[in-house]
Design a protein that fits this description.
- About 85% of the residues lie in helices and about 0% in strands.
- The protein is mainly alpha-helical.
- The protein has one domain: Mitochondrial import inner membrane translocase subunit tim13 like domains (Helix Hairpins, Orthogonal Bundle).
- Helix 1 packs across helix 2.
- The longest helix has about 40 residues.
- It is elongated, with a radius of gyration of 19 Å.
- The model has no long low-confidence stretch (mean pLDDT about 90).
- InterPro entries: Mito_inner_translocase_sub (IPR050673), Tim10-like (IPR004217), Tim10-like_dom_sf (IPR035427).
């Protein structure tokens, strides 16, 4: 059971990773005439990923705060 949950968690992670990579690539990489990534594209991709990571961290913090408040409210109600 735990192994299946670990596999599903990993699949979810890979799905999210692929979505972010695709989003940042399509938003930032526009020049296909060169084999190298130019500075503007690299900066855009780094900022895109940084924003996603910060947003994910923020959402996780808020979720934890919400769960804590719910647990406290349920404990006070009992």
């Amino acid at each position: 059971m735990a192994s299946e949950q670990n596999i599903q968690t990993f699949r979810d992670f890979l799905t999210q990773y692929n979505l972010v990579a695709e989003h940042c690539f399509t938003s930032c990489v526009n020049e296909f005439g060169s084999r190298t990534v130019n500075a503007k594209e690299e900066s855009c991709a780094n900022n895109c990923l940084d924003k996603f990571l910060k947003m994910t961290q923020r959402v996780s913090q808020r979720f934890q705060e919400h769960q804590l408040l719910n647990a406290q409210a349920n404990g006070a109600a009992m």
